[in-house]
Design goal:
Elements (H helix, E strand, L loop, with lengths): L2 H19 L12 H14 L7 E4 L7 H6 L4 E5 L2 H11 L4 E5 L13 E7 L8 H11 E12 L4 H9 L5 H4 L7 H10 L2 E9 L4 H4 L4 H9 L10 E8 L2
Parallel strand pairs: 1-2, 1-4, 2-3, 4-5
Antiparallel strand pairs: 5-7, 6-7
Helix pairs in contact: 5-8
């Protein structure tokens, strides 16, 4: 990596840290909502990730998904750029099955190398500076045969662009990476880093205000069965297996 590339990465990472540390972002707050549990059910159920092996969570933040994972019996190493947010997570969780590591996944600490059999991330890839570097770094901490899955906004769902435009505090610089959450871009970076069995699955339609209400899941399940709407589903799950 040349100096120019590293300088850009450092500036990008610092912006992302400031973007989240300087304000309380409501959507990042830990919650036990039906909406969050439903996302976990889909990603874990579709990708072969289990509580039987230690799990690396990329971009854990304040623990919106970490805390439910711990409740489900997972042993989690939570990795994030921000030591500030990880400190809050550790204080909230107070769980011996949680370890926190403040680092960039593209340049993971040596003690994490070849350590994990599975990794997961929720709404974090679209904040990353360079997906090739990210997956190359991630490959270094995963053992051969390890499962990896990332849940991201679907780049073709217009609701996310409206959210960025209309939500106070959200910026294009902070969240505009949604445009890169496409099959060729993400799975291509995974392939170049040595991942195989690459898959893209999409799910979800409705915002949390509806899903968390009585009958919300029934409506969303009905929409999920309409196959021609698949390209417009809200979330994309990119998954693969670390090659030997």
């Amino acid at each position: 990596m040349n100096g120019t590339t590293k300088g850009f990465r450092d500036r990008h990472n610092q912006y992302q840290r400031n973007y989240y540390e300087s304000r309380e972002k409501r959507t990042m707050q830990p919650s036990g909502s039906v909406y969050v549990e439903r996302q976990l059910d889909f990603v874990v159920g579709a990708t072969g990730i289990t509580a039987q092996a230690p799990l690396l969570e990329i971009g854990a933040g304040l623990g919106r998904y970490t805390l439910p994972l711990l409740t489900r019996g997972f042993t989690v190493t939570a990795l994030d750029l921000s030591p500030v947010m990880l400190a809050r997570l550790a204080e909230t969780a107070a769980n011996p099955r949680l370890t926190t590591v403040a680092a960039d996944v593209a340049e993971c600490p040596k003690f994490l190398e070849d350590r994990f059999e599975q990794a997961i991330g929720f709404f974090t890839l679209h904040h990353m500076h360079d997906l090739d570097l990210v997956f190359a770094g991630l490959a270094g901490v995963l053992r051969p045969g390890a499962n990896v899955a990332f849940c991201e906004p679907n780049a073709f769902c217009p609701l996310f662009y409206a959210q960025i435009l209309l939500t106070p505090g959200m910026t294009w610089r902070g969240d505009g990476g949604v445009t890169r959450m496409r099959r060729k871009t993400v799975l291509g970076a995974m392939s170049r880093a040595g991942f195989g069995n690459l898959q893209l699955r999409r799910f979800g339609f409705l915002p949390p205000a509806i899903v968390n209400r009585r009958g919300g899941i029934t409506v969303e399940d009905a929409l999920q069965k309409i196959r021609f709407l698949e390209p417009l589903r809200a979330f994309s799950v990119f998954s693969g297996v670390r090659s030997g």
